[in-house]
Amino acid sequence: MDQPGPIPRTAAAAPLRDRLTIPVLAFGGILMAVMQTVVVPLLPDLPRLTGASPGAVSWTVTATLLSGAVLTPVLGRAGDMYGKRRVLTAALVLMTIGSVMCALSSDITVLITARALQGAAASVVPLSISILRDELPPERRGSAVALMSSTVGIGAALGLPLAALVVQYYDWHTMFWLTSALGVLGVSAVWWAVKESPVREPGRFDVPGALGLAAGLVCLLLGVSQGGQWGWGSTRILGLFAATVVILALWWWQQLRATKPLVDLRLVSRPRVGLSHVAALLTGFAFYANSLVTAQLVQAPKATGYGLGLSIVETGLCLLPGGVTMLLFSPLSARISASRGPRITLALGAAVIACGYAVRIADSRDLWMIIVGATVVSTGTTLAYSALPTLILRAVPAEQTASANGVNVLMRTIGQATSSAAVAAVLVHHTSLVGGAPVATLHGYLLAFGMAGAVALVACAAALTIPGDPTTGGTRRARGTTRDSRDEALEGA
Question: Residue 433: what are its φ and ψ, rounded to 5°?
Fold first, then answer.
């Protein structure tokens, strides 16, 4: 008589650490987004609090953007080679150290340095998604990845009102002491609850590739982020863009010849990967205009005829429903991707973003309609951002998931930086004097919404050109895991 086999361990019977892996990683993603947004309510007062110029103060945001863009693909590659939990923990430690530095100092140089350290946390989401791929069974992976992707919007929606409340009622250093405590909690939770992934890609780290990519991205993003302030036709901006072209061309040449490149460009050139990166850039552009323009629109003075004159706290509360929606709709995104394929989810999300901007164009005077339009855009962003990592996971070998997702997040970052510059350019050219001060006109805001909506439609078209996923519907869905594995093996060959 055969002996009974071992009883499969259910989720309820799993050890506490296993059950907390997803919540802990999601907490890390939310914490990263909170860290990126908490400085926003401080920007108007930082020149007075630090004795620095407004231009210097703006670097507390720019430094985080630059370091995050540079470190995300680098740390993603390091995670694939040396261990994803190890690198994830290091990124959270750097973020926490930066927060402590901000809490201890009012010197603008220290603050900029600290914010640059916090940029390392941008790699948290791609590293966490790679860990989920390695540790979770296929039936749980889709919903977990969708939740992880939505943490960016959830954290941003929570961070702004939280920071505004702290700044309004307490000393501004208190906010950074609070985020430092949360950072220590996040590091401890990851070290305790997350297992080290056994999937590695051994080899020597591509230092020349990392330095070349860093130099090229710094020139590109510095030019994009400072173009409005320095002048798009200035020698400095044109020189930065010229340097970008030269450096990235040399970097591309070096990557194609490296034995173990930082970024596998042959993999990127495949349609399923390359078009996913293009869609990420376009979606990042379309998404970022929502929170950027909404915050300025509702805070515009009532004398403009359209502004609501809301405070920073009230502005944050207007964006909060969008964050809640992202949390609620992430499971729906996973279900659509499982039944129809992630490229359809991505296309649907981009189309919903465009619909949200149509609502914004139809009515941007009534507060409830502004909230509805912003929430619709957030809903579409949830669908799109949740589908992007799934597309990458199904198109690259397991040992390259962190670096590939890092590049995908980098493309979103470039899209967001470009969106910020484009929106600023539109609003600067459509202003009127209100109380002697130049203020953007409603027409300027509507043009920004139309621009973002048009980009969202292009993102939808790009998503539909991505080669079809093999796991769509019925019997094919049942065979999805096997075919997915076979595809990965072929892609990696």
Answer: -85, 125
Tell me the two tokens of residue 227: 């173009």
Residue 222: CA count within 13 A, CB half-sphere: 18
- Contact between residue 197 and residue 398 where contact means Cβ atoms under 8 Å apart: no
Token pair in block for residue 237:
């901006």
Structure-block tokens of residue 101: 């530095």
Spatial separation of the C-alpha atoms in residues 175 and 430, rounded to whole Å: 35
Number of residues assigned to the chain: 493
388: tokens are 């992007």
Q: For the ranges 50-64, 151-165, 216-230, which has the lowest average pLDDT?
A: 151-165
Tokens of 386: 């949740």
- Residue 371, both tokens: 């909230």
Using the CB atoms, write b or e for 403-431: b if 16+ within 10 Å.
bbbbbbbbbbbbbbbbbbbbbbebbeebe
Q: What are the tens digits of pLDDT across the range 126-177?
A: 999 989 888 888 878 888 888 888 887 778 777 778 887 887 778 889 989 9
Going along 173-262, which residue ranges are E strands? none
Assigned token pair, 162: 């939280």
Q: What is the pTM assigned to this prediction?
A: 0.82
Asked if pLDDT for residue 491 goes beyond 90, the answer is no
Of 257, 272, 385, the residue nearest 322 (C-alpha) = 385
Under DSSP, the state recorded for 438 is E
Do 272 and 391 touch, CB atoms closer than 8 A?
yes
Would you say 60 and 179 are in contact if contact means Cβ atoms under 8 Å apart? no
14-34 pLDDT tens trace: 577 778 889 999 999 999 988
| Beta carbons within 10 angstroms of residue 227's beta carbon | 21
Number of H helices, E strands in the chain: 20, 2
